[in-house]
Amino acid sequence: MLFNNLPLYALICLILLGFIIFSLLLYYLVFYGRFVFRKEKKHVLSEDFPPISIIIVAHDEAHHLIKSLPELLTQDYPNYEVVLVNDNSTDETPQLAIEMRNKYHNLHYVNMTSSVSTIEGKKFPMAIGIQAAQNDVVLLTGPSCQPSSPYWLRQVAGRFVRRTRVVLGHASYEKRPGFFNKLLHYDALETSIIAFSYTICGMPVMADGRNLAYNKDIFFKNKEKYFRHSQLPFGEDCIFINEAVKHDVCNVVASPEAVMEQYPIEFSKWFQLKQFSLISRSFYKTVPRMLLKWYNWLGFWFHIAAIGTLAVIAVLKNWILLGIVGAAVLLKIGMQYLVFIKGANKLGEKEVLPGMLLYDILVTVLRPWIYLGSKFEKSKWK
Predict the structure, then answer these.
(1) How far apart are CA 146 and CA 376, in angstroms?
(2) H or E segment and range at residue 305
(3) Mean pLDDT over residues 60-87, rounded?
C-alpha cells in the first residue's frame, strides 16, 4: 500500500500539502473562475452612454499631464469632461492647464491653494473635483495614467446598465522591456483578477483609484465614510467601496481597450505600496479580509510544502507516491496558469504568461517581508 510504513512526518507533510492544494483549487474555481470564465457582454449603444466626468488630482505633475491629458481629452465618447484639480502645484501645472483648456473645450480646471483646507493627501482635492463635476457619473484616475485606447471611456460606460452604479477597471503600467516591468504587470494582473472576482461574487472589497467609476450620489451619501480614513497613505478607495457600496450595484470592465496604464514605478515605491495595501486591508469587512489573508498565506506555504513533501517522499524512495504528489502539485500550477491565462487575455496582460511561475514565486517570497514592513510603516503614521 502507498501509505504503509510511512513515517509520521511524511504523513503530516502529505496532509498539509493536500489541504493547501485543495484550498487553492477552491479559490481558483469558486472565486476567480467566476470572473475569468465569465463571458463578457458587449457594451450598450452610444445613445445610452451616460455623461461622465473624469477626475484627476495633480500635485507637481506637469511632466505627466503633458502626455496624459491629450489622451484623456480625445476619447471617442459623445459627452464627457475632464476635471483637473491642481493641488497646490509649484511647477508648470497652472500654465499647462490654461493652454489645454484653450485647446480642449471639455477640460474643467479647478485650482486649489493651501488656504482651502488643512487636510493632507489627495482625499480633499478629490472631493473638490467630484463636487465640481457637472455629470452624475465620475471616473477617477491619476495624472501619470494614460488609457490603453481611445475607447477606454466607452468600455467603462458600457457597464453602467440596469442597477449598476459602480464600475471597477483594470489599472496596470506602461509596457517596457525588463524583468521588473513584467513583475509589475504580473502583480497588477493578479490584483485585478482578485478584485474583479470578489466583486462578481458579491463582496466588493478592492478598487483601484486609477480606474474607478461611480455615481456621485454614492459619494454625497457617504461623505463621512469617505473622509473617515483620510490619514491612510494608500488604499482608501478600497475601504470606501467596501464600506459604502452594496454588492448588487457593482460591475467590472474587462477588456484590453479599458486598461489604464500608469508610468512605471521603481521597486522601492512598489514595495512600499504593497505595504500600504496590507495596512488598508485591516479596515476591510471581516469575511473578505480573512479570505484575502488566507489566500496570501496559502500561496506562501504551498511552495514550502510542495518542495518539502517531494523531498521527503523522494528520500523514502516511494516512487508511486512521489508521482501522485507531483501530479497534485502540477494540477495546482496548471489550474493557476489556466486562471491567469484567461485573465490575461481579458485584461491585455499576455506578456507576463511565459514567466508567470517565476513571478509568482518571487512575489510569494517577498510577501513575508512586505508583511513585516507594513507593521513598521503603520507604526510611523498611526
Answers:
(1) 33
(2) helix 286-316
(3) 94
